[in-house]
Write a structure and sequence with these properties.
Keywords: Magnesium, Manganese, Metal-binding, NAD, Oxidoreductase. It catalyses: (R)-malate + NAD(+) = pyruvate + CO2 + NADH. It comes from Coniosporium apollinis. Residues 9-372 form the Isopropylmalate dehydrogenase-like domain. By secondary structure, this protein is α/β, with parallel strands linked by helices. The protein has 11 helices and 12 strands. It has helices at 18-37, 51-57, 65-70, 105-119, 186-202, 220-232, 245-254, 266-279, 320-332, 336-352, 365-379, and strands at residues 6-15, 40-46, 74-79, 124-130, 150-156, 160-169, 177-183, 207-212, 239-244, 261-264, 287-291, 299-303. The protein has a 10-stranded mixed beta sheet, with helices on both faces. Helix 5 (186-202) packs across helix 6 (220-232). Bound molecules: adenosine-5'-triphosphate (ATP) and magnesium ion (MG).
């Protein structure tokens, strides 16, 4: 190995179901990219932190797991979720050490995803959405042509409705009382606002829409409004507007071309970005980045889809969401031109095929992966 080449150490956490299939495909594409480009290379280390392991060990991340991750330049993540989780009424705790029959969805979230995002200060979740060449929106063409949907959703990733504060009492009384407290801090809101404005500044339209529900939630959401108003003064070139989250779903669906950069709380952006993914064509395409903008810790890149137990093990998952996520990782590592070229290769394949079933084709994961690798050989 030429010592002048850049070496990037990547932790891979494939997870469960199609998470493992699309992560393997993404690694193949990244290796091909490095091989053809020749100025950098990747070294991958795999972490088998899955629901299967949770059932055997009682935890997702070993006690020193976060520290292990800190030495990497980035993390490539697949998906976690147990095939049994939707049936399960199991009251499993992330701290249980016995073998567990199944793993409810909230356990994989609280046992794995949230500790990762919080411990690695990944306080921003970025979800770009657009209609890739050769794919189309389920919206009518008059409402949403190929160029009418080009958004980036900035999701607050560290506090808000997913803070985990709350509890359940009076369970034995027959009228259980549960609280779920949203936590909003000035520091937390300011940093996500600045990130959103910075993102808007880098995009051609320089347009930012802030989403809240401040007509009904009069503390945290009002603080969002106030801080938005303050931070806005530092960015006179950004055109801004505000939307209530309910009205926002209507605007996304009926007037997609009026939106560009969007900033919202953890819960609101979670929901809006699933809607965005669906409106852009397929959940199998959409990428996401969990970023630590301070770059103190590695950032994490993952397709937004889950483990898809219904198609897992068949080798037919669409790997494009994982490829796009990998491209975002390459961009975050500072290789912007390479990232653009990789996106070009991915879109050449979504346009000319082969395509997986969710995009109306009949190809499997392997065929799409090979096609993207061939494009990389041709285009780079
Ligand atoms: P989890 O519990 O892990 O969140 P889920 O089944 O709730 O899994 P997804 O995995 O996101 O949620 O799947 C939702 C639907 O979209 C499923 O029918 C699945 O088959 C389909 N799907 C998701 N990702 C892909 C993909 N990459 N390629 C093809 N279909 C996909
Ligand atoms: Mg799910």
């Amino acid at each position: 190995v030429d010592t002048h080449e850049k070496l990037f150490r990547i932790a891979s956490i494939p997870g469960d179901g199609i998470g493992t299939e699309v992560t393997e495909a993404a690694i193949q594409v990244l290796q091909k990219l490095a091989e053809v480009d020749g100025t950098f290379h990747f070294e991958f280390e795999h972490f088998d932190w899955s629901s299967k392991n949770f059932k055997e060990r009682g935890y997702y991340i070993p006690p020193d797991g976060i520290d292990q991750l800190k030495k990497f330049n980035a993390i490539l993540f697949g998906a976690v979720g147990s095939p049994d989780s939707n049936k399960g009424q199991t009251q499993a705790k992330a701290t249980d050490t016995k073998r567990l029959p199944d793993v409810p969805d909230h356990i994989s979230l609280w046992g794995l995803m949230l500790p990762l995002r919080n411990s690695l200060t990944q306080y921003v979740n970025v979800r770009p959405t657009r209609i890739l060449r050769g794919t189309s929106s389920p919206l009518r063409a008059e409402v949403c042509g190929p160029k009418d949907l080009d958004w980036v959703i900035i999701r607050e990733n560290s506090e808000g409705e997913y803070s985990g504060h709350g509890g359940t009492t009076h369970a034995a009384s027959g009228n259980a009382v549960a609280t779920e407290v949203s936590i909003f801090t000035q520091v937390g809101i300011e940093r996500i606002m600045r990130f959103a404005f910075d993102t808007a500044m880098l995009r051609p339209r320089k347009k930012l829409t802030m989403v809240t529900k401040s007509n009904a939630q009069r503390h945290g959401m009002v603080l969002w409004d106030q801080i938005f108003h303050e931070v806005k003064k530092e960015y006179p070139d950004v055109e801004t507007d505000k939307m209530l989250v309910d009205a926002m779903t209507v605007r996304m669906t009926l007037k997609p071309q009026t939106l560009d950069t969007i900033v919202a709380t953890n819960l609101h952006a979670d929901i809006l970005s699933d809607l965005a993914a669906a409106l852009s064509g397929s959940i199998g395409i959409a990428p996401s980045s969990n970023l630590d903008p301070t770059r103190k810790h590695p950032s994490m890149f993952e397709p937004i889809h889950g483990s898809a137990p219904d198609i897992a093990g068949q080798g037919i998952a669409n790997p494009v969401g994982a490829f796009w996520s990998a491209a975002e990782m390459v961009r975050w590592l500072g290789l912007e031109e390479v990232a653009d070229k990789l996106m070009e290769c991915i879109e050449n394949v979504t346009e000319a095929g082969p395509r997986t079933r969710d995009l109306g084709g009949s190809a499997n994961t392997k065929e799409v992966t090979e096609a993207v690798c061939n494009e990389i050989e041709k285009q780079l």
